[in-house]
């Protein structure tokens, strides 16, 4: 059985490519995260994540522990 891909969208405090790179190291270390990207031009500095069975509170937790603010957005 194939797991359904989740698409999660978050508001963050990632304001530069350098910070996005640091957050990306954390995100890349999670095998369940298939794809991620930041929209630094958006006022909410949006992070979009794709992966099977992802839970928003898990993503928020790992980024918060790494020093970033991350809150799920409804889309």
Secondary-structure element sequence? Answer: EHEEHE
Mean pLDDT over the full residue set: 94
CATH topology: Alpha-Beta Plaits
Strand order of the largest sheet: 2-3-1-4
Largest sheet: 4 strands, antiparallel
* Overall number of structural domains: 1
* Share of β-strand residues: 25-35%
* Separate helix tally: 2
Q: Got a strand count?
A: 4
The CATH first-level class comes to Alpha Beta
CATH architecture: 2-Layer Sandwich
Radius of gyration: 12 Å
* Distance between the amino and carboxyl termini: 27 Å
Parts with pLDDT < 50 across at least 5 consecutive residues: none
Dominant shape: globular
Q: Helicity range of the residues?
A: 25-40%
Salient structural properties:
Alpha-Beta Plaits; four-stranded antiparallel beta sheet; globular; 75 residues; 31% strand; alpha+beta
Structure at a glance:
The chain contains two helices and four strands. With 75 residues, the chain is of the alpha+beta class.
What does this structure look like?
The chain has one domain: 2-Layer Sandwich (Alpha-Beta Plaits), CATH 3.30.70. The N and C termini lie far apart (27 Å). The relative contact order is 0.32. The protein is built from 2 helices and 4 strands, in the order βαββαβ. The protein is an alpha+beta fold and 75 residues long. It has a 4-stranded antiparallel beta sheet with strand order 2-3-1-4, covered by helices on one side.
């Amino acid at each position: 059985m194939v797991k359904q891909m989740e698409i999660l969208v978050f508001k963050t405090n990632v304001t530069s490519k350098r910070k996005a790179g640091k957050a990306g190291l954390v995100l890349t270390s999670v095998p369940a995260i298939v794809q991620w990207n930041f929209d630094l031009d958006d006022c909410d500095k949006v992070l979009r994540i794709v992966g099977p069975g992802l839970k928003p509170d898990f993503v928020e937790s790992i980024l918060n522990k790494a020093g970033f603010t991350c809150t799920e957005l409804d889309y």
